[in-house]
Amino acid sequence: MSLRLLSVSAAALFLAVCASPAAAQDAAVEAQAVVIRDQAMRSNIALDYVTQVTTRFGALPAGSRAEQQAAAWAADYMRAHGFQNVRIEEFPLVGWERGQSSGEVLGAHPQVLALAALGHSPATPRGGIEGEVVRFTSLEDLQAAPEGSLRGKIAYVDFGQMRPMQDGSGYGPQTRVRGAGPGVAAAKGAAAFILRSVGSDENRLPHTGTTQYVDGKPTIPSFALAAPDADQVSRLVAMGEPVRLRLTSTARTYETHSQNVIGDLPGAARPDEVIVLGSHMDSWDLGTGAIDDAAGGAITLAAAKAIADSGRRPARTIRVVLYGSEEVAQPTRETGNGGGVYARNQGAALDTHIIAGESDFGADRVYALRLPAGAQGSDFQKAANRVLYPIGVLASRQVETEGGVDIGPMGPLGVPFFGLAQDGTRYFDLHHTANDTLDKIDPAQLTQNVAAWAALVWLIADSDVDFRAMRPADASPDAAH
């Protein structure tokens, strides 16, 4: 049933007590959420965690020794902060190591290009690959190229600069080019693939990211150009003369393992009912993974810790999962990613997973709360809005359906999702680049995230709200109110 929560003023609490014991309990839950929210706004645990993990270990490529060491350290960090049942869930992985990569324009006016090899693309032959550039403006254009027309050439997709957006919605249409483009280019006969970096900045820093395997096999050497270099190559092509590049990469794959780090704060009354707070530990090797996604681990750990430090245990169990291997593709289902491994290993226990939320969009402020279908307009949403509005978070009519890469595999198995939408205006300036470092985190905005997560999770964890049983709301346009 829905949580019937009233306002947190003294008068409202008095009226609730007079009305019924149930109403009094609901009002007390909401009042405690406010206490937790305000205490979390003064906490420094999130900043401590993100500082330690990025400083001690640097970048954490999936399956690397650094990721494995960081996971062991994070498990100890959880134990030291009162988490119980802390465990590490290992799984096999095909790791990828960048090695060295380079690119240059050949001919009468040679130029060096700022680029980065894309994840899980293979190495070039010794001495590199040389070829003429064929430019496309979309994945569809590349797909329409005649069979064999790119034989021995370098396919280049320049989809134009990504525009910064608060919700990051420009990323999806472009990142699919990075994932699928190399396979399409290889099928057309291309010797290599390059694309404009998937990012919203104009820095001369390339954005890396993973490519997809095709039938369990890697495709062709693939690279991302920094935005100014993408512009340069496009201008050269537009001049009408053939443009030839030399590309080199010494990347390699290797057999290894990754892992999920799991810790619980057991519920007092209904410990078998679990709320999952997720983020991922692995990061790309160019920066130190501060915003993607050490910040997410910091936010979820600190939120759970804020609830534990409030002096009251909620009815339900709060579980924090630091997933491994979120960033990379894998050749088979038997390897990677941490989210799929967790969902499969839980089996029937997923039936008692009440809801899950993921923090994987940096450390800038939360501005909207999104709940599962059926919760829009509910007493729970109204209560959450009262608690979160004072710190700048509005309840949204937008339904949270996807969750994120890590918690997403639980969705088809019946687990609902909530979302705390963050301001992503500058996220894709930094994402997957050498600029993803600790100094980009604003401590005040990081703390606002923790407060929003802690207050919301308390409301869920100390209630009897059943999001699975809620009827979907009537169709309505997405809007905040």
TrEMBL record:
Secretion signal, residue range per the UniProt entry: 1-24
Protein's cellular compartments: Endoplasmic reticulum; Golgi apparatus; Lysosome; Secreted
Record's keyword terms, sorted: Carboxypeptidase, Endoplasmic reticulum, Glycoprotein, Golgi apparatus, Hydrolase, Lysosome, Metal-binding, Metalloprotease, Protease, Secreted, Signal, Zinc, Zymogen
Classification via Pfam families: Peptidase_M28 (PF04389)
Limits of the Peptidase M28 domain: 260-456
Chief site of localization: endoplasmic reticulum
Assembly and interaction partners: Homodimer. The monomeric form is inactive while the homodimer is active.
Protein name per UniProt: Carboxypeptidase Q
Organism of provenance: Brevundimonas albigilva
